[in-house]
Design brief:
Layout (H helix, E strand, L loop, with lengths): L7 H8 L16 H19 L6 E8 L3 H5 L7 E4 L14 E5 L4 E3 L13 E4 L4 E4 L11 E7 L6 H16 L4 H4 L9 H19 L7
Helix pairs in contact: 1-4, 2-4, 4-6
């Protein structure tokens, strides 16, 4: 399986597996596939806590209300902004992504329909900040008036996110019944429970610093 924020080799080096930091394999305990699964779980947890991603993440049928002030003035305003729940939005592609407006009986997709993206057109998007601006075509309904399917996420994993992922997996491995295989006694002056506490504290600091707080209108 594919991992993004760290590798099994990173984990092996961090815990100094086998006394030499050698990587996991199909015959080790745990296997490389099992550790990859733990990495994927840690990646999902990091994304959930931070409300962000450093990999491509897909969101399907995310509903949005139009801010009441904007909706009441929609005929007077040149643009109505809609703040998505995430930043670093990927380019919308017809057939894969959607920006849908409910017209009272059906959803009209601005991406695949006969609409145009651009500041002087139907809508435009601030991809880095995750904001859709409706221009010539505006939402008809305020409550759940817009539905969006999109991809988001940065392409580069920062070092602190990598480290947080490594430590999260190390903690998971330390709680396993056969942890003595991975963390043999006598290899460190720091007891394993104290290590776990230190790792968790650092993970918490990193993820708190990386958590995004977005005001959704």
């Amino acid at each position: 399986m594919t991992t993004y924020y760290c590798t099994t080799a990173d984990i092996a080096q961090f815990i100094w597996r086998g006394g030499d930091g050698s990587d996991f394999s199909a015959t080790t305990n745990p296997t490389q596939a099992a550790v990859e699964s733990l990495i994927n779980q840690a990646e999902d947890e990091i994304d959930r806590i931070t409300h962000h991603a450093w990999r491509t993440t897909s969101v399907s049928n995310e509903y949005y209300d139009v801010r009441e002030t904007f909706w009441h003035q929609r005929l007077l305003l040149r643009e109505i902004p809609l703040y998505l729940k995430h930043r670093y939005i990927h380019t919308f592609t017809s057939g894969t992504h959607k920006i849908e407006i409910w017209d009272g009986s059906s959803w009209n997709d601005l991406v695949s329909g006969s609409y145009t993206e651009g500041r002087d057109a139907d809508y435009w998007i601030d991809y880095n900040e995750g904001i859709i601006y409706f221009c010539d075509t505006k939402p008809y309904y305020r409550k759940n008036g817009v539905r969006v399917t999109y991809d988001y996420g940065e392409s580069t994993v920062p070092n602190d996110i990598k480290r947080a992922c490594i430590m999260m997996v190390a903690i998971s491995l330390a709680y396993q019944d056969d942890r003595s295989i991975l963390f043999p006694e006598g290899t460190s002056n720091i007891p394993l429970p104290d290590k776990i506490d230190r790792w968790q504290a650092e993970v918490d600091r990193i993820l708190e610093r990386r958590t995004e707080h977005r005001l959704i209108y």
